[in-house]
Amino acid sequence: MTPLMAHYIRPEVIAYACFGLVLLLVFAGALIAVIPRNIIYNVFGLATSLIGVAGLFIFLGSEFLALMEVLIYVGAIAIAIVFAIMLSQPMHLQIPPRWRPKVIFSLAVSAVVFVSFGVLVAHTDWQAAAVRGGGWRVRRLGELLLTRYELAFELISLVLLVAIIGAVITAAALSRSQAGREEEGA
User: Fold this and answer.
1) Contact of 51 with 29, CB cutoff 8 Å
2) 8 Å CB contact between 78 and 46
3) Tens-place pLDDT, residues 58-98
4) How far apart are the first and last CA of the chain?
5) Would you state the pLDDT for residue 127?
6) What DSSP letter does each residue of 153-179 carry, written as one string?
7) Per-domain residue ranges for the chain?
8) Per-residue exposure over 75-99, b if at least 16 CB sit within 10 Å of its own CB, e if not
9) Alpha carbons 23 and 52: distance in angstroms, whole number
10) What are phi and psi of 149, to 5 degrees?
């Protein structure tokens, strides 16, 4: 940055603007993931929100977690959801209207959780983070992930595999029941 630009634009302002952009990605993506009734838009909103969360990890100085967020959640999970959508019921079928008590209940639960988290954050005595030692490099995290925390890593992989298999089985059952209804109607 040239001295003339530094006189008018301080680096802190640029950092705050980038942080605001990342927060906008998280919240806008979360709203897109929840509000539209088209599931493809929901998946794109989820991916956008998760990319914003990866940006938050970068601001926290954890580039490894940001990379894992993008690779695992945005890459693998979003793709798995898209595959589940491809195997599920066609989108041209009529979508039933939302049940109002269910919507009101979900809004109330969301408000309670949001207020609870807000109170928790407001009343917590936050301490400055300790200076990290040199042992938290990407190589060290990889070694820990594949040695000490291998069981947790494998359990997460197993849960994801079960979720994908469940989505495929559910989609196959829905298509079989729909085919049976079409044969009865013919």
Assistant:
1) yes
2) yes
3) 988 888 888 888 888 888 887 777 777 777 766 666 767 77
4) 72
5) 74
6) HHHHHHHHHHHHHHHHHHHHHHHHHHH
7) 1-63
8) eebbebbeebbeebeeeeeeeeeee
9) 7
10) -105, 25
